[in-house]
Amino acid sequence: MKVHPVFHVSNLKPFHANPLDASRGLSDRESICTKPPSQRRVEEILADRFVTVSKKKLVREYLVKWEGLGPEESSWERDHNLKSFHKRLRSSL
């Protein structure tokens, strides 16, 4: 069973800025990257794994560290999504 992060709008409270604490409400997290993987640049391949897609089919995925993004933004990408990076994949593994 999956639990989804859903909550009712009645649980929300309005934000009121505090002039004495200007950092209140600011995030430490890097900005969200909206570029699709085809437009990002691979910084490093961290790992690889095989994932079962159907009963008889395995697909290879790579854990990709994207250039300019923090390690928390690393993502698992299937090999066919990284065709333009194949030379880099071979040298990294």
UniProtKB/TrEMBL annotation:
What InterPro entries does the database record attribute to this sequence?
Chromo-like_dom_sf, Chromo/chromo_shadow_dom, Chromo_domain
Gene3D superfamilies to which the protein is assigned, alphabetical: 2.40.50.40
Q: What PROSITE patterns does the entry give?
A: CHROMO_2 (PS50013)
CDD domains given for it?
CD_CSD
Q: Where is the Chromo domain?
A: 40-93
This chain's protein is named: Chromo domain-containing protein
Taxonomic source organism: Hibiscus trionum (Flower of an hour)
